[in-house]
Amino acid sequence: MDFQIREAISANMKGHSPSDIRGVVEDAIQRGEEHLLPGLGVFFEKWWKIADDTKKNAVLNELSTAFK
């Protein structure tokens, strides 16, 4: 993924409320368009960098369940 995408998404989302971010995520998932996947990846990357090991393990368990 190109760093320009990361920077553009980060700049675009700066200052958004949790409700705003939820709307963006749900809209991207509902649309199901492949070109939106890198943006969701940036969201996950941002979260991963600030999450502690407990939160990371919890989401990894959830993802493992979702992919069964």
TrEMBL record:
Chain segments annotated as coiled-coil in the UniProt record: none
Entry's induction text: Expressed only in the forespore compartment of sporulating cells.
Main subcellular location of this protein, as a coarse class: other
UniProt entry keywords in alphabetical sequence: Sporulation
Xref: InterPro entries: SspI
Matches recorded under Pfam families: SSPI
Protein family according to the UniProt entry: Belongs to the SspI family.
Protein name (record): Small, acid-soluble spore protein I
Organism per entry: Psychrobacillus mangrovi
Lineage: Bacteria, Bacillati, Bacillota, Bacilli, Bacillales
Gene behind this protein: sspI
